[in-house]
Amino acid sequence: MSVPTRTDREAAATGNRASEERRLRAVRVWDLPTRLFHWSLVLCVVGSFTSAKIGGNAMTWHLGFGYAVCALLTFRFVWGFAGGRWSRFANFLYSPATLLRYLRGERRDDEHLDVGHTPLGSASVFAMLLFLTAQVASGLFADDEIATTGPLNKLVSSATALWLSDYHGSIGQWVLLTLILLHVGAILTYRLRLRTDLIGPMISGDKWLPSEVPASKDDHTTRALAAVLLTICAAVVAFVVTVGGG
Predict the structure, then answer these.
(1) In a domain, 25, yes or no
(2) The pLDDT of residue 7 is above 70
(3) CA angle, 83 as apex, 78 and 89 as ends, to 5°?
(4) pTM exceeds 0.70
(5) Cα gap 232→63, rounded to integer Å
(6) Cα–Cα distance between 167 and 141 in angstroms, integer?
(7) Which residues, other chains included, contact 197 with Cβ-Cβ below 8 Å and sequence gap of 6+?
(8) Cα atoms in the 13 Å half-sphere on the side-chain side of 44
(9) Is residue 19 part of a domain?
């Protein structure tokens, strides 16, 4: 029996990779509403931070960006139950045991931990949503004692308003900046070290995955539902701001 040469082994490995690639297909992971939410949130958060640093008349823009973030977050919480498969909270709300197994590199055949948000990525997503919500909520009641007050400021005492203002301009701001930097760092690490592109799928919506991986629903009905839900969320935020006198 002849011993396989190095060339034979390389040819076999190439053949296996080619066979594996043929079994992959473009799977819709991120539906269009989720992608639009993501990039709209990025623009609004950047605009909010920038306008706050400029101050003065730019604070009008800061409030506007804050209201937009509030509407987007409200939509995302609803979409976490009504959206496409991989956008639903149920599909990236992992137990501590699953997170530990993921960090140890242990996988089960029936799990798809790298399709949508990974266990580690999901922790980052929930932290971001939590602190963005806290930042928006504190801004609604804040009072900088100069020229800008949140639309719901009248509903709380002066002491509470000042405490929320302090959180909004210091702790909340720095926590969010830290989370954003960690998020960007994770994207770069996946791209440069793991050769995994996380940005492309959030633009196109698709990932090359094994054929058995289920796709997210992303048809005209889904998109129409998202448009209706976003309109309702924006209307609710506008009503709250108007009633509050913002």
Answers:
(1) no
(2) no
(3) 70
(4) yes
(5) 20
(6) 11
(7) 190, 191
(8) 19
(9) no
- 93 is written with which tokens? 């709300």
Q: What is the CATH classification number for the domain harbouring 177? A: 1.20.950
How far is it, in rounded angstroms, from Cα 167 to Cα 134? 9
Q: Specify if 115 maps to a domain.
A: yes
Question: How confident is the model over 157-179, as pLDDT tens digits?
Answer: 999 999 999 999 999 999 999 99
Q: What is the pLDDT of residues 175-200, one digit of tens each?
A: 999 999 999 999 999 999 989 999 99
- Rg value, the chain, Cα: 23
Alpha carbons within 13 angstroms on the beta-carbon side of residue 192 total 6
The answer to whether the beta carbons of residues 66 and 246 sit under 8 Å apart is: no
CB neighbourhood size of 82 (10 A): 14
The enclosing H or E element of 36 equals helix 32-54
Please give the tally of structural domains in the chain. 1
Check: CB of residue 17 under 8 Å from CB of residue 10. Answer: no
User: The tokens of 239 are what?
Assistant: 């009503």
**Residue ranges making up the domain that contains 58:** 32-244
Domain annotation covers residue 70: yes
